[in-house]
């Protein structure tokens, strides 16, 4: 057996054996002749930003109001204090937190296509969405 085998060359040959291209083709390939996109991020049109913000704001406000109504009704009427109604109140509370915390970072990420809120905001958003999703999955 020949001991002068280069591991990198062997790996490249293994990858090429699974593809349709030869080493000669890849070495002579000039990528400047292909029209790749020159911008990674595209600015959303103003009408799209305003429409999505208006829809998200109206859905969130209606949901926040109705969840607060459910919580107020259950909290003020002692005769509604049962296990099933506490479950409904717990779901209303989690839904309220979801409506307050989750749509806004999503809108910012969608409009600007990056995390304007930074690394901490990115991790906080992921944590909140995972925890609220976990609570939702245990309630159903």
If you had to describe this structure to a student in words, what would you say it looks like?
It comes from Plutella xylostella. Its main location: membrane. The protein is an all-alpha fold and 140 residues long. It is 70% helix and 0% strand. Helix 3 runs antiparallel to helix 4 (83-101) and helix 4 (83-101) runs antiparallel to helix 6. The longest helix has 31 residues, at 46-76. The chain is elongated. The model has no long low-confidence stretch (mean pLDDT 78).
Short précis:
The protein is an all-alpha fold and 140 residues long. It has helices at 7-17, 23-27, 46-76, 83-101, 103-112, 118-139.
Strand content: under 5%
Q: End-to-end span in angstroms?
A: 63 Å
Q: Spell out the helices and strands N to C.
A: HHHHHH
Q: Tell me the Rg in angstroms.
A: 27 Å
What is the β-strand count? Answer: 0
Summarize model confidence as the mean pLDDT: 78
Classification by helices and strands = mainly alpha
* Uncertain residue segments: none
* Biggest β-sheet strands, sense, barrel: none
Principal-axes geometry comes out as: elongated
Query: How many helices in DSSP terms?
Result: 6
Q: Tell me roughly what share of residues is in helical segments.
A: over 70%
